[in-house]
């Protein structure tokens, strides 16, 4: 339940306050810049290098979610990673939607999505809103999935507890039949030993 509360708080920052999750936003920024760095180190296209920032900041928590859910079978950690991926996707969506306007304050360099959707590359600022909405929608799905997984863990425990309580109650309601072995019980004279 504590993990579900954390997911709700994350959703509150993103969807109610319309801001990054405190501290986690800086982690997203770090992975965003790491994506660009990987693009600069390895010989890939400038387009991919520009897109790798947003791709990496979403791919890292998605990869961690897969790791925890698939390999470690840790539902709570996997759910939290999915929720993180959802908030990171929201952040990337805001960045994409800003491409035609370039109003966001950057830490330096060019606006990745203004470059990608601008006249020198795809020359289509008109798709910025649709692309941003798609990324934010997939992020919302990831966040809701994370919340549902968090809630499924205590729900499953509660249901299993009820099931075992019902089984215990059924066993308790069974008639008890007293069984005595021959030569055992009150009619056995003192000093007689049971066969053995």
Q: Would you identify the regions where 5 or more consecutive residues have pLDDT less than 50?
A: none
In whole angstroms, the N-to-C terminal distance is: 56 Å
Number of helices: 6
H/E series:
HHHHHH
Largest β sheet strand count, sense and barrel closure: none
The rough form would be described as elongated
Number of strands: 0
Q: Count the domains.
A: 1
Could you tell me the mean pLDDT? Answer: 86
Helix content: 55-70%
Report on the structure:
By secondary structure, the chain is mainly alpha-helical. Helices cover 68% and strands 0% of the residues. Helix 2 packs across helix 3 (46-71) and helix 4 packs antiparallel against helix 6. The two termini are 56 Å apart. The radius of gyration is 30 Å and the shape is elongated. 30% of the residues are buried. It has one domain.
Features:
elongated; 196 residues; 68% helix; mainly alpha
């Amino acid at each position: 339940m504590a993990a579900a509360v954390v997911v709700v708080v994350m959703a509150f920052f993103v969807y109610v306050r319309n801001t990054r999750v405190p501290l986690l936003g800086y982690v997203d920024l770090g992975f965003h810049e790491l994506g660009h760095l990987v693009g600069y180190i390895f010989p890939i296209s400038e387009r991919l290098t520009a897109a790798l920032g947003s791709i990496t900041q979403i791919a890292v928590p998605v990869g961690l979610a897969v790791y925890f859910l698939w390999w470690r079978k840790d539902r709570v950690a996997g759910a939290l990673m999915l929720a993180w991926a959802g908030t990171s996707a929201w952040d990337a969506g805001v960045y994409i939607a800003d491409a035609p306007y370039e109003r966001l304050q950057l830490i330096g360099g060019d606006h990745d999505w203004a470059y990608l959707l601008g006249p020198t590359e795809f020359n289509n600022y008109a798709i910025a809103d649709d692309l941003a909405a798609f990324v934010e929608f997939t992020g919302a799905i990831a966040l809701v999935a994370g919340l549902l997984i968090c809630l499924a863990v205590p729900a499953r425990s509660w249901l299993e507890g009820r099931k075992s309580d019902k089984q215990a109650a059924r066993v308790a309601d069974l008639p008890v039949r007293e069984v005595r072995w021959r030569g055992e019980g009150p009619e056995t004279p003192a000093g007689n030993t049971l066969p053995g």
